[in-house]
Each structure stands twice: as structure tokens, then as C-alpha cells.
UniProtKB/TrEMBL annotation:
The gene is panC. Its EC number is 6.3.2.1. It is found in: Cytoplasm. Keywords: ATP-binding, Cytoplasm, Ligase, Nucleotide-binding, Pantothenate biosynthesis. It catalyses: (R)-pantoate + beta-alanine + ATP = (R)-pantothenate + AMP + diphosphate + H(+). This is Pantothenate synthetase. GO terms for biological process: pantothenate biosynthetic process. The active site is at 37 (proton donor). (R)-pantoate binds at residues 61, 153. ATP binds at residues 30-37, 147-150, 176, 184-187.
């Protein structure tokens, strides 16, 4: 298994792969790999000759009072999880090289970055888009893979890829869940026992909303309220937002028609979790 940290070495490696006429799939991650990441890597392996998994806890996407310092960093563990996928290339750029203090340029994906997670995390998606663009430039992938748990993120990356004419096909894959419905996330390890048992309420609330919509409810405000009420029953949950929005534009929906996205962000204790579901209304 190859682990590359130098930007130059990574660039040269990718260039050689391309020169040989082979294809590259990139799976960008911040490490602390779980089954969700592994499902992306499985799909990437099927698609391309060479798979690069980047592991970089990106300081640009964390706000000042967020969990950058305590975010899990466990490279040895991640390398072990990636062994069954060998041959695979791991890219672990250093923070000083990749996000030097003098970094001034950045990528802003207007409109899509404003609602939902963008409200409470200003600058977050600029940080994400900037780092993903840098990863694209260095690893030169033909394909890139993201999870739908971060629905807004994958939408923003697809828009960036199109608008900046990257010749890259971006895939988004379904959320992988724990046995009780909790969406897999590297942040789940922050949850204590009591919080962990409360956490599946996010997915339960999404499914409850889905049932009601499928039975004919059209009023997005009512759906919003029903979700808030259900989440409100769990004292450990503090809602950040509940969104009932158009899955392409992320604009708020009033009357539910066709495909809609229901998205939730909530704090369970100190841990911020997000989840979402696409529902097809009649
Ligand atoms: O989803 C993530 O882990 C990160 O936001 C990403 C895409 C690797 C960018 O840092």
C-alpha cells in the first residue's frame, strides 16, 4: 500500500498514471474511516484503474469554535482498514504544505452554500470546495466519490466541478447506517452511551416525515413542525435546523410536490450530527 505525503510526489504519481492511459478515482476523506467511506472506496475500485484515498483533516472547513483540535486522527487504524483494498494509494498531505497560513485564494459556490449547514457554519463550504479543488488539481482524477450523508456538500462539489469545467465525473453514494438507522459519521465516536442511544431519533424523525408525506401531506411547514416536535421529545437533542427543500436548489419548499429533500442538523450533547432523506411526494 502506497502512502504519499508530498504534493509534488502525488502530482507526479497521478501524471504517470494518466500517461500510461489509466484512470484515477479519488475518494476524499478526513480519515477516521468507517463503512460509509469503505462503500465509496468499493465503488471507486470498480470504476477506475487506480484509487487514491486522501486523508486530510481540513482546517479551512472548521469554524473557530468547532472540533478541529479533537477531530479523530488515526492514520494507522485507517491504513489497516484500507489494507483489504490494496493496491490503493493513500494521500496524506501535511497541513503546512496543503493549507499554508498565506493561502489567499479560495472557491466560493454561491447560493448553494448559504442555506442549511451554511447558515450556522459560514465559510465551511468555501473551505470544503477549496480543499476539494486542490485535491482535484493534485490527484487529477477521472472520477470522485462523495457520500450523500453530506448532501449539501456533494451538491456543491458537483456544481463546482461543472462551473469550473473540471473534467471529472462526481458520484454521490447512499448514506451507510448503523443497525438502528444512525448515519455513519466519524463524529459518532464523540457520543457517550446515553447520547448514542438518543442519536437514531434523527433518522426516525426523517422516516416519520416521509410516511406522512407519502400519505399525502403537502404542507412543508407542517412537516417541519412535526419533525421539530418529535425531536423535541428527546431532551439531549438541540435542533440547529430542519429543512424541507428542493433537492437541486436547496430552496425552501412551501407546497410539497415531486422530489424533496428533508435535512436535519442537531446537536446531541456537544456533538453536531446531520442527516437527510429524499422523499418522492405524489
Ligand atoms: O466529507 C469530508 O470528509 C470532507 O468535507 C472532505 C470532502 C474530505 C473535504 O475536506
Amino acid at each position: 500500500m502506497k502512502t504519499v505525503s508530498s504534493l509534488k510526489e502525488m502530482f507526479e504519481f497521478s501524471r504517470k498514471v494518466k500517461d500510461r492511459g489509466q484512470t484515477i478515482a479519488l475518494v476524499p476523506t478526513m480519515g477516521a474511516l468507517h463503512e460509509g467511506h469503505l462503500s465509496l472506496i468499493t465503488a471507486a475500485k470498480k470504476k477506475a484503474d487506480i484509487v487514491i484515498v486522501s486523508i486530510f483533516v481540513n482546517p479551512l472547513q472548521f469554524g473557530q469554535n468547532e472540533d478541529l483540535k479533537k477531530y479523530p486522527r488515526r492514520l494507522k487504524d485507517d491504513q489497516n482498514k484500507l489494507k483489504p483494498f490494496d493496491p490503493i494509494t493513500i494521500f496524506t498531505p501535511g497541513e503546512k504544505d496543503f493549507t499554508p497560513a498565506a493561502l489567499a485564494a479560495g472557491i466560493e459556490v454561491e447560493i448553494l452554500s448559504k442555506p442549511l449547514c451554511g447558515k450556522a457554519r459560514p465559510g465551511h463550504f468555501r473551505g470544503v470546495a477549496t480543499i476539494v479543488a486542490k485535491l482535484f488539481n493534485i490527484t487529477q482524477p477521472n472520477y470522485a466519490f462523495f457520500g450523500e450523508k453530506d448532501y449539501q456538500q456533494q451538491l456543491i462539489i458537483k456544481k463546482m466541478t461543472k462551473d469550473l469545467s473540471y473534467n471529472i465525473e462526481v458520484f454521490s453514494l447512499p448514506t451507510v447506517r448503523e443497525y438502528d438507522g444512525l448515519a455513519m459519521s466519524s463524529r459518532n465516536i464523540y457520543l457517550n452511551e446515553r447520547e448514542r442511544s438518543a442519536a437514531p431519533i434523527l433518522y426516525k424523525a426523517l422516516n416519520h416525515a416521509k410516511d406522512i408525506i407519502e400519505k399525502g401531506e403537502k404542507d412543508a411547514r407542517r412537516i417541519n413542525l412535526i419533525i421539530a416536535q418529535l425531536l423535541g421529545r428527546e431532551p439531549l437533542v438541540k435542533i440547529e435546523y430542519v429543512g424541507v427543500v428542493d433537492p437541486e436548489t436547496l430552496e425552501e419548499t412551501k407546497e410539497i410536490k415531486g422530489k424533496i429533500l428533508i435535512a436535519i442538523a442537531a446537536n446531541i450533547g456537544q456533538t453536531r450530527l446531520i442527516d437527510n432523506l429524499i422523499v418522492n411526494a405524489k
